[in-house]
Amino acid sequence: MGGFSRLYVFLYNNMKHLVKAFHLVQKHNIQFYLSLSRF
C-alpha cells in the first residue's frame, strides 16, 4: 500500500508540473499568435 500511495503522489506531482507547463505554453502561443495578427 505504501508503494502505491508513493507512486500516486509521484504521478500527481508530475501532473501538476505538466499542467503548469502546458498552461505556460498555451499562454505563450496565444501571445505569439496575437503579435502575429497585428501585422
Overview of this structure, please?
The chain contains one helix and no strands. The longest helix has 37 residues. The protein starts with a helix and ends with a helix. With 39 residues, it is mainly α. The model has no long low-confidence stretch (mean pLDDT 89).
Descriptive terms for the model:
0% strand; rod-shaped; plasmid
Number of helices: 1
Given the helix and strand composition, which structural class is it?
mainly alpha
N-to-C SSE string, H for helix and E for strand: H
Strand content: under 5%
Low-confidence stretches: none
Give the N-terminus to C-terminus distance in angstroms.
58 Å
Rg over CA atoms, rounded to whole Å, is 17 Å
Total beta-strand segments: 0
- Judging from the principal axes of the Cα atoms, what is the shape? rod-shaped
Overall residue-averaged pLDDT value: 89
The main sheet comes to: none
Percent in helix: over 70%
Keywords: Plasmid
